[in-house]
Inverse folding.
């Protein structure tokens, strides 16, 4: 028996021997099909063996092989070639750029993977696509570029909050923003603003340093980030140096910005006529008060008190006073290169962006060093370090009288400069020597803009050190230690001229200091083994993160004079406090991928997360995911379907969590509660030791395809995300002494479809390619334990409805008989039918679902053309099916019946005579005719934007090399050049900053429009 | 060699993974209930917290007085405010989701929970302070239950208190969410109130700064007994307060409501217990609704001539009323930082007088002497003969807008407009939100 085996074995050895006998050396050059340049680093191996080599810097190679062997030529970004070896000894090969980009390398959690073998859904945006976009932060630049990633700026103020929803909102009261990971380190991305309007800590990142952004969308991709992955994970990878010649790049651009649109308001004549009509109408209803002469008095008051104000022909367009042409300047310098031992990337940037609103400015100064060094074959070390300083001249919240846009409430009959004083209207009342308290209509925002400031300065240091150690062949240990230090000072000062707004006569100042230190370490092993047709990749390890926040605040008033602006000179310190808080996460993770013959793909992953935020009894959570892929085109039976070059089906299912709640939400707590100067304490929070994460179970089925040799590629995905154990503040019996407790109740789900198409329409000298992404998401709150949540005018969370649905009275226009505002009763009759009759009694009408702030579809389409040195890129982005509620409508579109705010032009349509059919009720001074929250102020919010248009010219190599340069490019770029929408407000991309939450969405409240920016730039490469 | 490397590696991983205890991060601005109540100082600080909670706008910040006075109004005032909740109360049409009804319920039980926390840890308090701390906590708990039972249940003398639903009695501190309790009977709640206040009277010192002293408990007890119609006990308790000589009527009636400007003021010699207000802590919700805008209020309640006509011409109590741009206002609450008078000496004279009169006794003094004490102070001539109506009218005017209208109408079986004293419309509903979260509760009649 043993003999037999030995014999068989020796036969095998013999046969190997035989095959060796026929080998010979093959050499040649691998080059790019288009450029003809030699390609370095192409891997060449004999199929079915581990024998292989790579090309040198010039693309030359040599390999020992035998006739009949299949040689595989493979390089990232190129279509692999297989050549069966004949008798030749020289074999020159050209590789075609892989338009499908299926061999593209994708960054995944704790590793990288080729796109073709991926079983999860990850959207990638390369840094090159968003380079030099004239916006403060990268999320704005990727808006519309990643399928299923909804990006919405709250308004056009620079550096302010941005809403990102990956495949819909998956929480009601916990965070809904994705987790951001920079070079493996989770960073601080939560707003540190001292006001309820968010700022954006991601704006501290110079996104020209970004190599790629990967958004992990499905459970298979994201669950390796466990308890913080329900909202998706955004992986940011910064640029690294490559061995070779040192490259020096200098980029500069200058741009000019205007608002995308304005809202139309009445002019002076329309305003005066309208309010006279409103006063007469009011008098007709209530003759007990002389509205007409009262109104004349007010018109005179707002006409700077001049009895003859009408003949002064003042007609102020207040929007002119706050909008301006903003200027943007940005310069980037970076150098990268290195050798076999050490690679580096060094970059610096200065960006200065002036807002389209006066007083708004965002500056960023940043530097980065990314370094890696190969100590020996087994050990590599390195660091990525960035330092930045951002300075944001902020504006007041959207709901503040002092925010610039609220200037539209002032009367067009009011002059900018009060002729009585020669100063800004409102600055001085000659009778009191103090600022006016009743002229103009409201506090004039220009006073604060000229006599105050609100500046946030952030120093940010994001960095990590890493070491990678090849323990044995195929097994690598990597350790990363990272820090993210965010040090922010917010300083504000408002001089005595602002007293009508601050309520303090001699100035108000504040200084808030915030320090967030965030430490993280990742330690993990990666094992890769290729055994002929079997590929195994496994990654496992641990991570620990701790984040500490320290806050100090001081406020003071009664300044010596307006010349003194720091709190040192405040006679009265009115508030001062210091606070701190912290959280930590301890995690263990494991992922195993198995591929058979590059045809069948399986991936399993799991993470165990523990957090200080959760109750002792539920501190550890387990988040597993499984996924599988089947590359159908690798099957024999597909061989004859020539037009189909690639087809992959993938399926994933897994659990992720959401832990974005207060740091100590599970605890029973006592806090300070003093009584007239005697310190005391009282219970502040009821204990819930069972508190745990929100859990999202997500199923994703996807199809990836390539047609016509990769000229047309695409991805189709369908997903269902079911979130349960929602962290909700639920009402509890008041007899406990508490009103609410945070508990895991409630469910919601998101279902959707994503479509990605990439097409090479023309190739050759003239190229035209198109890239399209579309995503549909349907959100539904499925269980709220019978509650209805919401705290603003109309946004609510209601069972069976999308999150934040607009719920309120249905407005039905003006009563044709008398001009009263009408509402649909919407009372459910005994037989279950709905009473659709109309009433002028707001209180009688019932609340109904009026609209949805969540879009049905979002998408983007990019067309790129190039011819010789010219390139043109046209990128449209769109949002469809959402509604917008104008929260300021009750003042600005109020039929002149709610104070003396200037009215939008549409109010001229007001009912005047019996029989008039109109949607604007009769103008009635002070009668609040239809000003309560209702569908009167709801509009369609869909829009399509020409988001980015770039036209550039690369000077030909012949010219460039003469002036000792590598690259010279000049370009013109436009951001938000055109916006197509039916929305009549300033801009349809809006969510009033002071009140934005998961539920409060799609509200416009004097919110600043987006900037339309045209810029000119130059790229120099040496 | 390779194996050694691996061992190092796993040892390293193990060390790193021992950071489990790093998950125990303690909050910096808050502490656990166990820690909070672990020391004598902590328990005493919690007692201070109970006073602070009691000063909430919806409790002794004044709304337990403003709202029932509006509910009891017979045309003496006009409500012109925009707070819908108070408009509904003033109109005697209270929906079950009325915000004021809800807030007073919730904030009252918040006070009770803080007091229960103190009492649960009373053994921790050093002996020298133990009795006082227990007495104060029981005064607070008993007083708040008394406010609740008056507002959310049938009055004591309406039908059978032994079977009428009262409010749930909770005597233990809350440490987690549990099923809500059912309503105890009116009788059980009164028994608890009397037990707490009697204990408090026995435990508290005669004087205790602006905190509750012995006579605060006695005076509150006299109010409780009067509400029950237990005149003898009410009389005796009132007499104990008066005869203690710890308190003295202020000479000039308006000085009982000091307004030296918008500043914190001390208790007067007449105040038995007053909820303290300063620019840092506490709130005076009476000021919010009664005071003119010039005095920091909303000017929502204006006084009608019908009320002024009740006074005799020389009555110094009239000095407090003033014309605010066409609206008559009371000056009792002009100081934003004025203390909220919970109980004061004048009421004890009126209670003793009424009880003596009803019982035909003259404990401490005759009813006539006590009424004349009140009249003398406001510059009115002595009466020579007395009827019950005289006593009740004197009480009405002396304590006007101090939160006693509704309860006096109920116990004397008067009426509010067309509504009789025992109309369900004069009882608050159990808040809707409470019924939803606590299925053991039953709603009041008429809602």
């Amino acid at each position: 028996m043993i003999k037999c085996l030995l014999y068989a074995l020796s036969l095998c050895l013999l046969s190997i021997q035989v095959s060796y006998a026929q080998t010979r050396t093959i050499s040649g050059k691998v080059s790019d099909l288009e450029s003809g340049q030699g390609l370095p680093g192409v891997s060449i191996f004999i199929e079915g063996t581990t024998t292989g080599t790579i090309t040198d810097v010039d693309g030359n190679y040599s390999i020992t092989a035998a006739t009949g062997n299949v040689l595989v030529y493979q390089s990232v970004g190129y279509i692999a070639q297989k050549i069966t070896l004949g008798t030749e000894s020289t074999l020159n090969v050209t590789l075609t750029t892989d338009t499908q980009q299926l061999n593209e390398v994708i960054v995944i959690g704790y590793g990288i993977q080729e796109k073709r073998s991926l079983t999860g859904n990850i959207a990638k945006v390369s840094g090159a696509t968003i380079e030099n976009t004239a916006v403060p932060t990268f999320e704005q630049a990727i808006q519309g570029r990643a399928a299923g990633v909804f990006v919405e700026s709250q308004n056009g103020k620079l550096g302010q909050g941005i809403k990102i929803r990956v495949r819909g909102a998956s929480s009601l009261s916990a965070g809904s923003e994705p987790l951001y990971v920079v070079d493996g380190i989770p960073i601080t991305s939560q707003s540190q603003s001292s006001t309820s309007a968010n700022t954006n800590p991601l704006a501290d990142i110079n996104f020209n340093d970004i190599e790629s952004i990967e958004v992990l969308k499905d459970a298979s991709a994201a669950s390796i980030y466990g308890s913080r992955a329900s909202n998706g994970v955004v992986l940011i990878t910064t640029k690294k140096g490559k061995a070779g010649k040192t490259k020096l790049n200098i980029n500069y651009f200058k741009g000019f910005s205007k608002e995308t649109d304005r809202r139309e308001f009445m002019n002076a004549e329309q305003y005066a006529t309208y309010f006279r009509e409103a006063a007469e109408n009011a008098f007709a209803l209530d003759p007990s008060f002389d509205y007409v002469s009262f109104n004349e008095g007010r018109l005179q008051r707002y006409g700077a008190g001049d009895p003859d104000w009408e003949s002064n022909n003042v007609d102020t367009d207040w929007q002119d006073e706050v909008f301006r042409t903003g200027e943007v300047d940005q310069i980037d310098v970076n150098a990268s290169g290195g050798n076999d031992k050490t690679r580096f990337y060094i970059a610096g940037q200065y960006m200065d962006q002036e807002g389209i609103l006066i007083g708004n400015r965002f500056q960023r100064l940043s530097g980065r060093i990314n370094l890696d060094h190969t100590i020996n074959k087994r050990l590599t070390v390195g660091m990525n370090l960035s330092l930045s300083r951002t300075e944001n001249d902020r504006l007041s919240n959207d709901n503040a009288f002092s925010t610039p846009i609220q200037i539209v409430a002032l009367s067009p009959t009011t002059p900018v400069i009060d002729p009585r004083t020669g100063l800004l209207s409102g600055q001085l009342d000659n009778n009191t020597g103090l600022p006016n308290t009743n002229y103009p209509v409201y506090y004039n925002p220009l006073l604060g803009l000229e006599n105050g400031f609100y500046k946030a300065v952030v120093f940010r240091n994001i960095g990590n050190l890493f070491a990678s150690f090849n323990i044995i062949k195929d097994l690598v240990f990597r350790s990363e230690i990272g820090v993210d230090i965010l040090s922010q000072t917010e300083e504000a000062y408002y001089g005595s001229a602002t007293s009508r707004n601050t309520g303090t006569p001699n100035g108000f100042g504040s200084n808030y200091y915030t320090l967030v230190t965030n430490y993280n370490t990742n330690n993990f092993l990666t094992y890769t083994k290729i055994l002929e047709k079997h590929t195994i990749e496994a990654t496992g390890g641990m991570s620990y993160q701790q984040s500490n926040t320290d806050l100090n605040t001081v406020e003071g008033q009664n300044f010596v004079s307006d010349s003194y602006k720091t709190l040192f000179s405040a006679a009265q310190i009115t508030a001062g406090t210091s606070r701190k808080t912290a959280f930590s996460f301890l995690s263990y993770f494991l992922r195993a991928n198995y591929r058979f013959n590059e045809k069948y793909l399986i991936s399993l992953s799991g993470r165990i997360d523990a957090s200080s935020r959760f109750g002792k009894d539920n501190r550890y959570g387990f988040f597993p995911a499984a996924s599988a892929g089947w590359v159908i085109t690798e099957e024999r039976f597909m061989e004859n379907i020539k037009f189909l070059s690639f087809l992959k089906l993938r399926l994933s299912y897994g659990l992720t969590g959401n832990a974005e709640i207060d740091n100590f939400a599970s605890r029973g707590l006592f806090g300070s509660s003093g009584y007239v100067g005697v310190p005391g304490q009282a219970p502040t929070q009821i204990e819930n030791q069972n508190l745990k994460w929100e859990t999202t179970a997500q199923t994703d089925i996807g199809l990836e395809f390539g047609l016509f040799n990769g000229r047309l590629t695409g991805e189709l995905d369908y997903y269902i995300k079911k979130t349960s154990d929602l962290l909700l503040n639920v009402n509890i019996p008041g007899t406990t002494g508490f009103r609410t407790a945070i508990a895991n109740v409630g469910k919601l789900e998101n279902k959707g479809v994503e479509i990605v198409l990439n097409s090479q329409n023309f190739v050759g000298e003239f190229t035209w390619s198109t890239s399209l992404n579309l995503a549909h998401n349907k959100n539904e709150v499925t269980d709220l334990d019978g509650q209805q949540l919401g705290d603003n005018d109309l946004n609510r969370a209601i069972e069976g409805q999308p999150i934040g649905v607009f719920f309120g009275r249905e407005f039905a226009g003006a009563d044709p008989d008398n001009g009263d505002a009408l509402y649909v009763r919407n009372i459910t009759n005994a037989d279950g039918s709905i009473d659709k009759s109309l009433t002028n009694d707001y209180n009688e009408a019932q609340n109904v679902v009026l609209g949805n702030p969540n879009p049905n579809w979002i998408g983007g389409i990019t067309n790129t053309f190039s011819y010789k040195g010219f390139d043109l890129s046209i990128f449209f982005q769109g949002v469809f099916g959402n509604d917008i509620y104008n929260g300021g409508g009750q003042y600005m579109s109020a039929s002149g019946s709610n104070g003396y705010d200037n009215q939008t032009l549409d109010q001229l349509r007001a009912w005047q005579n019996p029989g008039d059919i109109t949607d604007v009720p009769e103008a009635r001074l002070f009668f609040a005719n239809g000003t309560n929250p209702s569908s009167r102020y709801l509009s369609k919010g869909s829009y399509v934007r020409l988001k980015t248009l770039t036209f550039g010219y690369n000077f030909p190599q012949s010219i460039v090399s003469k002036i000792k340069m590598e690259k010279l490019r000049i370009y013109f770029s436009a951001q938000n050049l055109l916006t197509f929408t039916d929305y009549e407000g300033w801009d349809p991309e809006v969510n009033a900053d002071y009140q934005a939450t998961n539920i409060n969405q799609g509200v416009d409240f004097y919110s600043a429009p987006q900037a339309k920016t045209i810029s000119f730039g130059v790229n120099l490469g040496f | 060699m390779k194996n050694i490397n691996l061992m190092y590696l796993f040892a390293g991983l193990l060390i790193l993974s021992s950071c489990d205890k790093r998950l125990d991060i303690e909050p910096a601005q808050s502490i656990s209930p166990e820690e909070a109540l672990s020391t004598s100082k902590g328990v005493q600080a919690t007692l201070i917290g109970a006073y602070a909670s009691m000063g909430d706008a919806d409790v002794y910040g004044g709304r337990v007085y403003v709202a029932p006075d509006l509910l009891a109004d017979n045309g003496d005032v006009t409500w012109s405010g925009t707070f819908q909740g108070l408009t509904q109360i003033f109109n005697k049409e209270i929906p079950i989701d009325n915000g004021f009804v809800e807030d007073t319920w919730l904030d009252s039980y918040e006070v009770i929970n803080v007091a229960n926390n103190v009492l649960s840890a009373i053994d921790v308090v050093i002996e020298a302070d133990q009795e006082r701390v227990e007495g104060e906590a029981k005064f607070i708990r008993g007083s708040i239950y008394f406010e609740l039972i008056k507002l959310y249940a049938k009055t004591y003398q309406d039908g059978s208190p032994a079977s009428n639903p009262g409010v749930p009695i909770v005597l233990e501190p809350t440490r987690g969410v549990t099923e809500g309790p059912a309503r105890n009977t009116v009788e059980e709640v009164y028994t608890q109130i009397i037990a707490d206040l009697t204990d408090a009277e026995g435990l508290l010192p005669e004087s205790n700064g602006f905190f509750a002293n012995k006579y605060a408990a006695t005076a509150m007890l006299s109010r409780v007994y009067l509400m029950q119609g237990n005149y003898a006990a009410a009389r005796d308790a009132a007499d104990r307060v008066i005869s203690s000589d710890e308190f003295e009527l202020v000479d000039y009636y308006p000085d009982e409501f000091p307004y030296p400007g918008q500043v914190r003021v001390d208790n007067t010699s007449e105040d038995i217990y007053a909820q303290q207000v300063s620019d840092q802590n506490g709130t005076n919700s009476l000021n919010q609704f009664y005071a003119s805008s010039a005095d920091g209020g909303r000017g929502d309640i204006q006084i009608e001539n019908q009320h002024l006509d009740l006074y005799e011409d020389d009555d110094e109590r009239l000095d407090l009323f003033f014309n605010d741009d066409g609206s008559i206002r009371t000056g009792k609450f002009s100081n934003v930082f004025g203390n909220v008078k919970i109980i004061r000496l004048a009421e004890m004279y009126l209670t003793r007088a009424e009880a003596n009169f009803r019982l035909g006794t003259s404990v401490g003094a005759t009813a006539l002497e006590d009424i004349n004490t009140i009249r003398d102070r406001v510059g009115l001539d002595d009466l020579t003969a007395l009827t019950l109506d005289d006593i009740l009218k004197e009480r009405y005017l002396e304590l006007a807008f101090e939160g006693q209208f509704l309860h006096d109408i109920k116990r004397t079986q008067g009426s509010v407009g067309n509504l009789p004293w025992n109309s369900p419309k004069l009882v608050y509903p159990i808040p809707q939100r409470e019924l939803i979260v606590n299925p053991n509760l039953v709603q009041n009649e008429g809602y």
Notes: The mean pLDDT of chain B is 93. The first helix of chain B runs from residue 2 to 17. The radius of gyration of chain B is 25 Å.
